[in-house]
């Protein structure tokens, strides 16, 4: 299992799945739930500047999620998303306990851990980062 092709395939699947999850959440905030409703929810949770925070969160989730899917600027995108999810875990989910079924911090914790794996191991060769690094060499 410790073959570069297997590692790169696993990283491709891993970051693509994470990226799709974040794009879906950003699209939901922006278009389905709507920014106004998302901002109202952020306000109920006590998040400062709820409208600005809703816009920033939705845009960051969509853009950085898409960057994860294609593997461009991958470690930076994963790092930004990890910070956003850590903040969400702290400000929203921590007071709800552990389990996701109760709104707890279980889900953001798994996402932060997953994103940190991408930060540490990178995008792999099956990514635009991998292609661009080979072109420069």
From TrEMBL:
Keyword vocabulary terms for this entry: Cell membrane, Membrane, Transmembrane, Transmembrane helix
GO cellular component, one term: plasma membrane
Coiled-coil positions: none
Cellular compartments annotated: Cell membrane
Membrane topology, record value: Multi-pass membrane protein
Annotated transmembrane regions: 42-60, 67-93, 105-124
Family designation: Belongs to the DoxX family.
Name of this chain's protein: DoxX family protein
Organism whose genome encodes this protein: Corynebacterium phoceense
